[in-house]
Amino acid sequence: MTEAVSRPRPLHWPTLTPGWRLALLLTLVVFAIALYLTWDIKASLAFTLKYRSKKLITLLLVGFSVSTATLLFQTLSQNRILTPGIMGFDALYVLIQSILVLTLGVIGFNTLNPYMKWGMETALMILAMLMMYRLLFRGNQQSLQFMMLAGIIFGVLFSSGSALVFRLLDPTQFGVLQDALFATFAAVDPILLQISFGVLAVTAVALWRTHARLDVMLLGQNSATSLGLNYNAMVLMILLLVAILVSLSTALVGPVSFFGLLVVHLAYRLAGSYQHRFLIPFAALLGMLTLVSGEFILQHLTNFSTRLSIIIEFFGGLFFLALIIRQGKA
Prior knowledge:
single chain, 330 residues, mainly alpha, ABC transporter involved in vitamin B12 uptake, BtuC, globular
């Protein structure tokens, strides 16, 4: 897909190489984690660390997953305003939740085995991506564009199905469903976190082993193929990694649409390099820093009762509109 916006210009700090910028960002992440865990402890230290560490791990996993998935998807599409949400993942998640509430009822939905629910949601999202690749991708850039357009159509179809289910729910069921559709970082099962951490660790290893080929993908299909890259295999691998990362994040906490767009754009500006060996860890760390510091400010400094995801989506949506307006003026 042709690039819809000009590539963000990196900020040039002559005294800071990309490696030093990564080290500085890692230091900020560690500092934010320490503040989040130790600020305003009113109970015993052991109890407080145990209570806060579960939410902290969730924030770190989601920050890594969403940021990395968005970066990979933009590398594949060569477009800086697209996110994996264009493939209809968020709409599919909403449809799954709607059908579960309608068929199981409030009690059945709230008592559903969390591991079975998580596994089903993750498997369905990955399967949907594989089916779209199998049916629509024909090994060229045009078919990749067609597959993304098909993702938009499927997203509209899933949204329409969800709207139909909404009308069949009673007020109590609708309230439970609405609560489930807002991303929350507090009520995640520890075993699910361990499983997700293991899957993301394997994903991180795969990304590190292929970061050089991801750099070649930025050159476009013709250039990548002339350099000896198996373009079709790379497209499938990137789509699989994106599907795994997005499905894990969405199944854990719910949809977070614009967060990745905001973080990845800042990563391009601040990382000091377009090489994926710097971009991937920089975007992941920046996503972690944004979520941890945002949760710290929201919970400990402002005492707001709203969810962090609502604020992130609000500012992320404004940022997306700003990118569109800026490109229109350009």
